[in-house]
């Protein structure tokens, strides 16, 4: 059993700030510009294939580790649909 909550593609983490491989959308928008998908539950990283095996990627963004934080309101909303 994984020690992490499963990722449900909420997009929340990447909307808060880019990981070390990402980039902010603009000076006024800190969401990563490589976050794909338009709806919560369908988001994905457009750089996944490029960065999945890079050193440090296992820690951040830690694909698949999910964000079980109860500070993620989008995750809570998706799980309670
Ligand atoms: S995982 Fe991908 S979408 Fe998310 S912050 Fe990193 S580069 Fe951007």
| Principal-axis shape | globular
Which range does the strand content fall in? 5-15%
Structural class: alpha+beta
Low-confidence residue ranges: none
Query: How are the strands ordered across the major sheet?
Result: 1-2
Taken together, the total number of domains comes to 1
Strand tally is: 4
**First-to-last CA distance:** 24 Å
* Ions, cofactors and other bound molecules: iron/sulfur cluster
Q: Count up the helices.
A: 3
Rounded average pLDDT = 91
Largest sheet: 2 strands, antiparallel
Radius of gyration (Å): 12 Å
Write the element-wise H/E pattern from the N-terminal end onward: HEEEEHH
Helix content: 10-25%
Task: Draw up the topology in text.
Blueprint: H1 12-16, E1 24-26, E2 29-32, E3 35-36, E4 44-45, H2 48-51, H3 73-79
Antiparallel strand pairs: 1-2, 3-4
The protein binds iron/sulfur cluster.
3D structure, described in words:
- The structure is a single chain.
- The chain is of the alpha+beta class and 81 residues long.
- The protein has one domain (12-79).
- 20% of the residues lie in helices and 14% in strands.
- Strands 1-2 form a two-stranded antiparallel ribbon. A two-stranded antiparallel sheet has the order 3-4.
- The model has no long low-confidence stretch (mean pLDDT 91).
- Bound molecules: iron/sulfur cluster.
């Amino acid at each position: 059993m994984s020690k992490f909550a499963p990722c449900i593609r909420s997009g929340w983490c990447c909307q808060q700030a880019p990981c070390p491989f990402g980039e902010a959308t603009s000076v006024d928008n800190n969401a990563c510009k490589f976050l794909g998908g338009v709806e919560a539950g369908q988001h994905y990283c457009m750089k996944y294939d490029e960065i999945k095996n890079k050193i440090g990627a296992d820690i951040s963004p830690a694909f698949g580790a999910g964000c079980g934080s109860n500070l993620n309101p989008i995750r809570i909303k998706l799980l309670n649909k």
